[in-house]
Specification:
binds zinc ion; five-stranded parallel sheet; 9 helices; single chain; Rossmann fold; two-stranded antiparallel sheet; globular; about 240 residues; alpha/beta
Length: about 240
């Protein structure tokens, strides 16, 4: 029996999926999390997952009661098939195809397929992912059409009725901060700043107004820009977004 009130969140330890986790806890009665170890260049994100979940438990008792199991699947095989800056120590730059070489071909398709398989076993209906078409690097497997097509394929292939939820699909980074503020106020914004890692360099020691990171890489630049725009958005405007 799959309850409509259950969700599995793909939680990487970054800002976007942390916001998605809060979104799911606000909406559903039982929420589990899943992460993937694909031999990322930096372990910081995987460590951040644990610390962020602990922080949620300490600071948000009503969410802690709903937060169920966490699991990390070993997908190191992705490292074997990917020639990417995230899995190899190469410089992050645009490739000939125009896609940034942080692109790991098929990664989100693989992640969502494994997540759906776990959701099937665990009886979880909603599969939540922080993919976004709006202001990221144009990864084709983050696009709305890819996710919708995958939902159809997974439901056909598993004879199921999963819903692939993408709360961030059409919002930008400033609006992602606003969403966090709406869901959990300053306490959640601060927790995301302090305990999530999006930096490509895996820098968790350097602190900024917008959180931790090298401050130079494209992911840090995007996060900093988004936070600045969020700060400049009047609270009244945030409430109606
Ligand atoms: Zn960085």
């Amino acid at each position: 029996m799959t309850s409509n009130q259950t969700a599995l969140v793909l939680f990487s330890g970054g800002q976007d999926s942390a916001t998605c986790l809060a979104w799911a806890l606000d909406r559903f009665e039982r929420v589990e999390t899943i992460g993937f170890d694909y031999r990322q260049r930096h372990r910081a994100e995987l460590d951040a997952r644990v610390k962020f979940r602990e922080g949620l438990g300490e600071r948000f008792p009503k969410w802690a009661a709903k937060l169920g199991e966490d699991r990390v699947l070993d997908l190191s095989v992705l490292g074997q098939i990917s020639d990417s800056a995230l899995t190899r120590d190469v410089e992050i730059s645009a490739t000939v195809s125009g896609l940034p070489n942080t692109f790991v071909p098929g990664r989100n398709i693989v992640f969502l397929t494994f997540a759906a398989a776990v959701a099937y076993r665990r009886g979880l209906k909603h599969v939540v992912t922080g993919v976004c078409e709006t202001d990221f690097s144009g990864y084709p497997d983050c696009r709305d059409d890819t996710i919708k097509a995958l939902q159809v394929a997974l439901n056909l292939g598993m004879e199921s009725r999963f819903v692939l939820e993408t709360p961030l699909m059409w919002i930008d980074k400033a609006q992602t901060w606003s969403l966090a503020a709406r869901l959990g106020g300053t306490a959640l914004v601060d927790l995301i700043k302090d305990r999530t890692v999006t930096c490509y360099e895996g820098d968790i020691l350097t602190s900024h107004e917008w959180g931790r990171g090298c401050g130079v890489c494209p992911a840090c630049a995007l996060r900093a820009r988004g936070f600045q725009a969020f700060k400049e958005t009047p609270a009244s405007a945030r409430a109606t977004e």
